[in-house]
Every structure is written in structure tokens, then in C-alpha cells.
């Protein structure tokens, strides 16, 4: 269950990272509210995952999911570049996430 919490926490992190773009410096009430709620949800789920996952693994996976998801959102929705070097870097992050999962005992 801890890994499910962690995946959901990572997805929520994507939500608040993307949400920051739409808050316009926290001047738009609805995007700001949704972004803050996503932040709270992300941290709460991370806290639940940390009950049984190692801190270093959980934090690295959480930030990795957020980073990769945010980059993909930027490419797909915002027209950001998807050049080979950038995608190779994303691949390295994904490899790190998978590696950490493989070496961490199932929780």
C-alpha cells in the first residue's frame, strides 16, 4: 500500500507543480486553491508512504515522479522542447526511480 500512496503523492506533486503555472503568482483564487490542495494532498500521501518506506527512497521517487510528469506535461500541453538530450535526462530519472523500487523491499 505504501507504494500506491507514493505513486498518488507523486501524481499530486505533478498537479501542484503544474498548478503553480496557472496561479499567476498566487493572484488567481481558484488555481491557487487547487494548487494548495494538491500540495497538501501530496505531502499527506508522502507522509503515509513514509510509514514503511525508507526516507531516501520515498523522497527520491516522489520528486522523480513529479519531475518526469511535469516535464511530460510541459512537452505535451505547453509545447516545450523534447530534444534528444532532454529526453535522455528524463530517461535517467525514470531509470533511477525504477532502480530504487527494485532495491527497496516491498512494503
TrEMBL record:
What is the protein's membrane topology class?
Multi-pass membrane protein
Q: What is its main location?
A: membrane
Report if keyword Transmembrane helix is assigned: yes
**Taxonomically, which superkingdom?**
Bacteria
Cellular compartments annotated: Cell membrane
NCBIfam families, A to Z = PRK11431.1 (NF008512)
The record's family statement is: Belongs to the drug/metabolite transporter (DMT) superfamily. Small multidrug resistance (SMR) (TC 2.A.7.1) family. Gdx/SugE subfamily.
What's the protein called, per UniProt? Guanidinium exporter
Q: Which gene encodes it?
A: sugE
Amino acid at each position: 500500500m505504501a507504494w500506491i500512496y507514493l505513486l498518488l503523492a507523486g501524481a499530486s506533486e505533478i498537479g501542484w507543480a503544474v498548478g503553480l503555472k496557472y496561479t499567476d503568482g498566487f493572484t488567481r483564487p481558484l488555481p491557487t486553491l487547487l494548487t494548495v490542495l494538491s500540495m497538501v494532498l501530496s505531502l499527506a500521501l508522502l507522509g503515509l508512504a513514509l510509514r514503511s518506506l525508507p526516507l531516501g527512497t520515498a523522497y527520491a521517487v516522489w520528486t522523480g515522479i513529479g519531475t518526469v510528469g511535469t516535464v511530460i506535461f510541459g512537452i505535451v500541453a505547453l509545447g516545450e522542447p523534447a530534444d534528444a538530450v532532454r529526453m535522455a535526462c528524463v530517461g535517467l530519472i525514470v531509470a533511477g526511480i525504477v532502480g530504487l523500487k527494485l532495491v527497496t523491499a516491498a512494503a
